[in-house]
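User: Predict the complex.
Assistant: Input components as received:
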Amino acid sequence: MSGFTAVVKRDVTLAMRRKTEVITAIFFFVVVAALFPLGIGPEMTTLRLVAPGILWVGALLASMLSLGRLFAADYADGTLEQMALAPTGLTVLVAAKVVAHWLLSGLPLVVLAPVLGMQFNLPADALWILTLSLLIGTPVLSLIGAIGAALTLGVRGGDVLIALLVLPLYVPTLIFGAGAVQAEISGLGASAHLSILMAMALIAAVLSPWASAAALRLALES
Amino acid sequence: MLHISNLGCHKGDRLLFSDVSFELKPGEWLHLQGDNGSGKTSLLRLVSGLAAHSIGHITWNGPPPDAEPTPPSRADMRAHVVYMGHQLALKDDLSAFENLQTHAQINAQTIDDSQAMDALAQLGLRGREHLAVKVLSQGQKRRAALARLLVSPAPLWLLDEPFVALDTKACDRLTHLINQHIDRGGMVLLTSHQAVTFTGQGHAYRLAA
């Protein structure tokens, strides 16, 4: 087994043995998405209008919840040192950690989104586009978040700092992700938005592990 | 062969040590001594490549090709060293066996189950291989971490205070393992506040503050 799969497997196993972290993020997403229809009222057209934004912001915050712990545990127990020394290369292992983060806190949101979307009276086409946009968009959130998590490693009050660093960088993803669903509802077609989202995912996939690994090396040096 | 010449290390504005030069040939060990804060751990981290050095040279196989001062660099020793720091790099929720397997896989080594069990047994963890690390004692955790040395093919062992928390029996076992490694032509660079002796060529090196 390669180092990449070993890290993915380890992180998923650890999360399964301590389930609270995964469940917290999922439950947060469900509760946030369920609270809005209660607060806004049962007006069908209003709900349909705000649905893409609310579901996307909910997913974005839920995915950010677990970012603080992405590298913190490995840093505290010395595993990160050993990963930096591994011949596989820290960049590859960081990419594996991001994949594990997405599997644990991105993929469940993608699966739940259509169910929650029904509360907002979204038509079937829009539900499909919502799921697709989250499927492409949540990896971007994990990838960008990894850079923030790496940069704030070992900093006191890092959790708040991550939010400040990462949320502005999430804006383009949010605009094109939620925009895709809105465009589908208004009949314009979502392909343009989804293409841009895909392009962002590809760029992030190339740059993020490299940038995160560089930031982690700085943290390890001190 | 590890070759270190004129190595220096800064922590902030403070010079921790300078002009550290020594060689370590196959079958040799070196006991790094020094007061608290004299830079023993920093030196090991420089050699491992975890930290970048700005002064001097760390080379594997022979002295540096040119004597010119090089810009800050990181020794690329990944293929040659196994590093045991103060932090044990064990995951509390995994067993000692799983920790060892994962570590080996991340380091692109293929070890089968019997090799892993054998390494843990050699460190006296027989019967505790499948317990979660969080229920082990400090000394047992350190033994579980030390089992990594046995499955690693790296010739140079960098051990930072390896005897801490170990009982006398475990200390003897570790000394025996280090002797075996040296006999096979391995190299050991370690820090310890206890007096240590191993087989083969070895000496102490004192870091002056």
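The mean pLDDT of chain B is 86.
Let me know if you want any component modeled separately.
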